[in-house]
Amino acid sequence: MESINWRGVDLNLLIAFAALMETRSVTKAAEKLSIGQSAMSHNLSRLRTLINDPLFERRGHHMVATDKAKELAPVIEQVLQLITSEILQPKAFNPEADRSTIRIGLTDYAELLFAPVLFDAILSQAPNCQLSFHKVDRHNYQAMMEDQDIDLVIGSMNQLPRELDGQYLYTEDHVCLFDSQATGLSAPIDLARYIQTPQALVTPDGKLASAVDQQLRAQGVSRHVAVGSGNFLTIRHLLSGRNLLCVVSTLMARITLFNDDLTQCPPPVSIPDFDIRMIWRKRNASHPRLTWLRQCVGQTVKNQVTHLRQQPPPET
């Protein structure tokens, strides 16, 4: 490898060689490649130096290939075909033939809402692949994408770093969720009953306060957060049969994993909506596999959101 003059290796020389083999004429090869005859003669000279063989000898109006040229012809043709089909014009991605591992990063919220439908959609198109879900949050998703080689992330992440790109999927809002019998509450609830009821908090970072508490303090009131958990399933189980209230995203309240009888109603405080995005690394954005995956995941998420929003809330 070290003895090869790689600076003298030029893909155009292989193309020139193939044209000479086909036409057996410097003039016709130059016309075929739309270059000047002097440029083609220069390419032939460089080829002879690189290969250390005359390659072609003039006999009358034709160029006769040497034995070395004849040996190289099928190899060079194969190299050019490989470069064309695998690099310059790669085959379209075929999900049915894919056997890779697809890695998707999901927040706790996104995993509950979308993991089952993503499994169904992806495996229906790519039945031979493996699907791996990774739990991420807004603090660790960047590192997780690199460390775990995650293809896509779904969550509420804003202000993406320059090496990532994203696509808006939908906007989520909030409802109050509670057990009417255990709390004695009925919908709708006013601010007074809201702050008097012990509250549960979905808290990915472990903090037992949120922007709601700042808003309440501005109004001269406060609430009592009795329990917090980073897992929505835990909070949902706690709400049944207990004097607890929790503000959750509307779609989370509507998933049909539970046989509980919790009540939903609008919160009596203003809670900002949040956007859900799909995020990927820019350096892989044009890869056919990721292009297919983005289309599949994006459409599946939007279909699931539409389905959940069409579900009627529980009777209040």
From TrEMBL:
Protein name: LysR substrate-binding domain-containing protein
Pfam families with a match to the protein in the record: HTH_1, LysR_substrate
UniProt keywords, alphabetically: DNA-binding, Transcription, Transcription regulation
Membership in a protein family: Belongs to the LysR transcriptional regulatory family.
Gene3D superfamilies: Periplasmic binding protein-like II, Winged helix-like DNA-binding domain superfamily/Winged helix DNA-binding domain
Residue ranges of every copy of the HTH lysR-type domain listed in the record: 9-66
Origin superkingdom: Bacteria
Lineage of source species: Bacteria, Pseudomonadati, Pseudomonadota, Gammaproteobacteria, Vibrionales
